[in-house]
Amino acid sequence: MTTRSVRRYAMGVGERVTVELSSPTGPLLRVAASPAEGVVEFWDEHIEDGGDGFDRTFQAFGTGHPIPSDAQWRGTTERTPSGYVWHLYEVNE
Fold this sequence. Notes:
- Helix content is 0%, strand content 54%.
- The protein has strands at residues 3-12, 16-21, 30-33, 39-48, 54-62, 72-76, 86-91.
């Protein structure tokens, strides 16, 4: 039987985080700035079907920060109260 749930992940800006997701390329549900300064959150629908997950690596960048040429954009946050906007990219490990 297949069970679906939404999972939340949080990471610091500039930090690389590898998480196991159900899809090797599927879109994320949402990307947002956390109330904690310099933290980006993202959500994914997890499908528990007995199969293996897929390790995917993400990194958040600030506007104007250099981004690796092979990185794939996955979402942008709203402006934080401090005026920052963060951009979440999927990166190679």
